Amino acid sequence: MSTMYRYALPVEQSEWRFEGATDTSFTWEYDDEREALLTLYDRGKKQQWDAAERIDWSQDLDPENPMLIDDRTIPIFGTAVWDRLTDKEKVKVRHHQQAASLSQFMHGEQGALIATAKIVQCVPDLDAKFYAATQVMDEARHVEAYVRLLHEKFELAYPISAGLKALLENGLSDRRWDMTYLTMQILIEGLALAAFQRIRDNAKNNLAASVNAYVMQDEARHVAFGRLALRDYYPQLSDAERDEREEFVVEACYHMRDRFDQKDVWEGLGLPAKECAEAVMQSEFMKGFRTRLFTRIVPTVKDIGLWGPRVRAAYADMGVLGYAETDAAEMLANDERVAEEFDIKKRMAQVAAE
Question: Looking at residues 268-276, what average pLDDT do you find?
Answer without folding.
Answer: 91
